[in-house]
């Protein structure tokens, strides 16, 4: 047994006794008698965490299930009712073929991701804090993996449920995942998401803390960085940060009322020389002045890190309808003389409650970025001199002309048409008057 436990801890990161396996508990719940499993289930979850104590996986499983409340009245009013609903859930899950022998399939991980997405879509305003719509995740992943088949390290400083990081491994082979998340419950979601998708505990390092105030991977550099930070969040903007390597070279800090550029600066600090980062930000980042304008100018003029600006449709994120965009940055750009602007704001499908990007919309954005192609009313490569002339204002309409000229109106033809209508109306009025006279009634005019 000790040898099996040691092997399980090495391969899985945790250990369970045969009687504690999922199928055994599901079968017990379906039994005619002695089928109360809530207490056993709670003990098993505790045993999973305790089995990792003193092992390399301890940090990854520590308090992993602390948000799972099997005593919640949301499961049922009585203990029997709670037990019944949990038994039904376990029974349905036990009947699923997870195709564990198929290395190409990830039924369990994809199902978990689907449930997170469904919860996000119905969870209201706060949902955007932990889940990024799949189509947006795909764009970010495809952009930062352009030209690569393997990535040594991927990082998300505001990783939420970890969906952005996991999307990367659908594009390329990723050796190691790193992330940080402020919300404790969401941090647990991210760790579970990694485990559910079969990411070995040694391959991910997810930390829980405030990324800007208390960065956990400060000395590390990453080959791919993706993020969807909270839009215009508050942060301390403490003067002490002027001696922080992440911000000191810029000369100014992002305003305390809008941390957008603070997150961008943090990500740039962690970006490897051969890496690419893509971040979702609100449109205000493109043109707001003050300290943000100063930081924007430094990134473009002094560092020349900005590679592309991609405008997205409004109302595609859960909980907010504001228009957003993506910034793509590299420390070593292959095209240092221009910045690619893409206006994809009008390319989407309308749904009942929000808009969404179709597969064709995603493909168009990615292909345009990868080939740096120009298309009227959609994309344009702006020379650095043009951006300088616009005082580093990156508002997309300044570079991508989407103006639609209205059809010219022939005034003479319109006048002739109106005159013809007048004649027709006069003829109609005369006909009506004749009918009224025959019927010996008064005319309506």
Query: What class, by secondary structure content?
Result: alpha/beta
Instruction: State the oligomer.
Output: single chain
What fraction, in percent, of the residue positions are helical? 25-40%
Rough outline: flat
The mean pLDDT is 89
- Architecture per CATH nomenclature, i.e. the level-2 architecture of the largest domain: 3-Layer(aba) Sandwich
Strand content: 15-25%
Distance, first to last CA: 102 Å
How would you portray this structure in words?
- With 445 residues, the chain is of the alpha/beta class.
- It has three domains: 2-95, Ferritin, CATH 1.20.1260.30; 114-398, Rossmann fold, CATH 3.40.50.150; 408-445, no CATH class.
- The protein is 38% helix and 15% strand.
- It has 14 helices and eleven strands.
- It has helices spanning 2-11, 22-29, 38-51, 58-61, 79-94, 107-122, 134-144, 163-168, 184-196, 260-270, 290-302, 359-371, 384-389, 411-438, and strands at 150-156, 173-181, 204-208, 222-227, 271-282, 306-311, 324-330, 338-343, 349-350, 355-356, 379-383.
- It has a nine-stranded mixed beta sheet.
- Helix 9 links the parallel strand 2 (173-181) and strand 3 (204-208).
- Helix 2 (22-29) crosses helix 5 and helix 7 packs parallel to helix 12.
- The protein is flat, with a radius of gyration of 29 Å.
- The protein starts with a helix and ends in a 7-residue tail after the last helix.
- Residues 124-128 have low confidence and may be disordered.
């Amino acid at each position: 047994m000790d040898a099996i436990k040691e092997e399980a801890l090495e391969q899985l990161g945790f250990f369970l006794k045969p009687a504690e396996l999922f199928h055994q508990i599901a079968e017990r719940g379906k039994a005619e008698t002695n089928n109360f499993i809530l207490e056993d289930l709670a003990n098993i979850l505790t045993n999973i965490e305790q089995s990792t104590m003193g092992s390399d996986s301890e940090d990854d499983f520590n308090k992993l299930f602390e948000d799972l409340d099997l005593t919640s009245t949301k499961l049922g009013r009585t203990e029997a009712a709670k037990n019944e609903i949990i038994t039904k859930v376990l029974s349905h899950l036990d009947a699923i073929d997870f195709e564990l022998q198929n290395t190409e399939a990830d039924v369990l991980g994809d199902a978990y991701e689907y449930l997170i997405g469904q919860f996000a879509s119905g969870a209201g305003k706060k949902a955007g804090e932990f889940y990024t719509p799949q189509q947006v995740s795909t764009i970010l992943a495809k952009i930062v993996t352009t030209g690569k088949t393997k990535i040594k390290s991927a990082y998300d400083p505001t990783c939420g449920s970890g969906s952005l990081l996991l999307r990367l491994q659908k594009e390329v082979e990723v050796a190691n995942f790193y992330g940080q998340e402020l919300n404790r419950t969401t941090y647990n979601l991210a760790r579970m998401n990694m485990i559910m998708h079969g990411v070995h505990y040694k391959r991910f390092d997810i930390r829980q803390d405030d990324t800007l105030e208390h960065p956990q991977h400060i000395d590390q550099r990453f080959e791919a960085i993706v993020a969807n930070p909270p839009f215009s969040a508050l942060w301390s903007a403490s003067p002490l940060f002027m001696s922080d390597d992440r911000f000191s070279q810029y000369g100014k800090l992002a305003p305390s009322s809008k941390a957008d550029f603070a997150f961008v600066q943090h990500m740039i600090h962690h970006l490897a020389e051969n890496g690419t980062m893509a971040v979702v930000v609100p449109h205000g980042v493109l043109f707001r002045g003050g300290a943000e304008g100063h930081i924007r100018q430094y990134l473009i003029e002094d560092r020349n890190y900005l590679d592309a600006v991609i405008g997205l449709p409004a109302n595609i994120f859960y909980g907010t309808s504001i228009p957003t965009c993506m910034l793509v940055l590299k420390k070593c750009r292959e095209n240092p003389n221009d910045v690619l602007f893409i206006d994809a704001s009008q390319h989407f499908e309308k749904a009942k409650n929000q808009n969404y990007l179709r597969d064709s919309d995603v493909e168009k954005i990615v292909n345009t970025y990868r080939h740096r192609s120009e298309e009227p009313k959609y994309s344009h490569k702006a020379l650095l001199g043009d951006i300088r002339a616009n005082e580093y204002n990156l508002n997309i309409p300044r570079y991508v002309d989407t103006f639609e000229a209205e059809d010219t109106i022939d005034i003479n033809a319109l006048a002739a048409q109106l005159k013809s209508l007048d004649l027709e109306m006069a003829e109609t009025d005369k006909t009506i008057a004749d009918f009224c006279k025959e019927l010996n009634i008064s005319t309506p005019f």
